[in-house]
Each structure stands twice: as structure tokens, then as C-alpha cells.
Amino acid sequence: MDDREACSGSSKDTERLASIAGAFLSDNMNTLSKPFHKLFRRKKGFLRQSPALPPLRHSLADAAALPSYVDLQSRLRSSVAKEKHQKLLKHRLKPQGPGSNDRSMAERAVNVLTSIPFIAVGLQTRRARKTPEGKRFGTTMVSVGAAATAYHAAQGDLRCALRKLDYWTIALASTQMVRALFPSSSHQLRALNAASLAMMPFQPIAVSTANFGLAEVEFIRRSMEDRKLARAYRRHAAMGGIGLCCFALEDVAIQHGHHFVHSLWHLNACYAVASTNALMQRREAPECRQLNGC
């Protein structure tokens, strides 16, 4: 009984509190709702005063002109392929690196001085030759001397580029030497010249070896027919052989402390090239007789 009376008493108290709270809210509803009305009015005014969104400046045609994902992906692939191709082409150009010579100022000065005679030989060859092919060979020899001088005097990244130019001018001079020694109307000669020019940036040593080797064979053949030419060929072969040995053993000589082998290669090669003027003179003799110019 006591528990029932306690529960009924608590429920009565709850009902009284609820009735009192309801009466209080009904009497003071207007007072309590004023702040909410003000807040709602402010929000409503803010919405009314908010600026309108700007109109779209781009039309559907402009949107259609924008590159798609596929276009961007294809452009990215093409740019990557182009960059890869440029790097591959750069690595295929020969020779690579700045070279192993010119490690001291004395060696650099000697190499520069011994490169200048190539220019003198080229100028002398250009004056002495009668055919256009011979004169072009003299011009290319001038370019060989100029490229070698610039290469040995240069430093840094420019030296790598000038080393390529040095080798390329030598290969070009060998091509012009062959054209000066053989008839230009030969189809085999034209094919050889075209192949030499195409391979020159990638295999300049191979181009020079093939063309100078062909010139050596012609020099030997002509020297067997003429004793005077045989004397010139013996001097040519001796100096050319020494120069070739200096060029081939240059790296080994530098490792053993001999730093002026490259300058010896310059001098011997320069004399060997100058001695080919005797062969070119023999080659030009029939044409000079026809033109009554010699």
C-alpha cells in the first residue's frame, strides 16, 4: 500500500508541474517568439539582398571545343615520345663526351697551334686545284682546321659540341677528297657520297675510314704507274702511318703520361693530307690538257 501511495503521489506532482509549464508557455508565447521572428526576418532579408549568380560566359560550342581526356592523353604521349626520341638521337650522335686531351694549358696551347696548319693546307689546296671538286676539298680542309682549333680552345658543354663538329668536318673532307679523285659521273660514287653524308653524324670515324681508304687505294694504284708519284706516296704513307698510330694509341699514351701525342697526330695527318695534292694534280692532268689550262 505504501508503494502505491508513493507512485500516485509522484504522478500527481508531475501532472501539476506539466500544467504549470503549459500555462506559463501559453501566457508568454508572444514574448518568447520575438527573437525568433527577428532572426527569421534577418535571414529573409539576407536572402533578398544576396546577389544573383553571374551568367555563364562560355557557350556550349566553347565547351565542346575544350580538349577531352583522350586528347590530353594523346598529347601527353606524343610529347613524351618526342622527348624520348630527342634523347635517343642525341645519344646516337657521335662522338660523345669532351675527349681525353687538353688536360693542361700547355697541352691545350700546343693542340691549338698544331691545328692551324690544316687551314694553311686547305688554302694552298684550294689555290692549286683546277677542278671544282678539288677546290671544294680545299675548302673542307679549311673547315677542318677551324673546327679543330675551336674544339681545342673550348671548354664546358661547348667543347662536346665542337668535338662532334671536328669529327664531322673530317668525314666531310674525306668525302670531298674521293669526289676530287674519281669521276663525278659514276653512279657508285654518287651512292657512296650519299651514304657518307647520311652516316656522317652517327658514324664519322667509319665514314672517314672508308673514304680515306678508297683514296689510299687510288694513290697506290697511280704510284705504281709513275715513279715521281711513288716518291710522294712513300712520304705520304710514312707520315700517315705515324699519324694513325698516334691517333689509335692516344688514350694509352695519356695514361702513361705522354700528353702531346695528339699534337703529333695533327702534324703527321696534316702532312699526309698535303701530299695528296700530287695525286690530285695527276688526276687533273687530262682535263687540264683538254682545256689548255696547264
List the helices and strands and how they pair.
Elements: H1 2-27, H2 29-49, H3 60-65, H4 69-92, H5 105-128, H6 132-153, H7 157-181, H8 187-199, H9 204-223, H10 227-248, H11 250-255, H12 261-274, H13 276-291
Essential attributes:
elongated, 294 residues, mainly alpha, Rhopdopsin 7-helix transmembrane proteins, 13 helices
Radius of gyration (CA) equals 46 Å
Mean pLDDT: 79
Shape: elongated
Q: Number of DSSP strands?
A: 0
Which series of helices and strands comes N to C?
Answer: HHHHHHHHHHHHH
Helix tally equals 13
Termini gap: 155 Å
| CATH fold naming of the domain at 92-291 | Rhopdopsin 7-helix transmembrane proteins
Corresponding CATH architecture of the domain at 92-291: Up-down Bundle
The CATH class of the domain at 92-291 is Mainly Alpha
Explain what the structure shows.
This protein has 294 residues and is mostly helical. The chain has a domain at 92-291: Rhopdopsin 7-helix transmembrane proteins, CATH 1.20.1070. 81% of the residues lie in helices and 0% in strands. It is built from 13 helices and no strands. Helix 6 packs antiparallel against helix 7. The model is unreliable at 1-7 and 42-50 (pLDDT under 50).
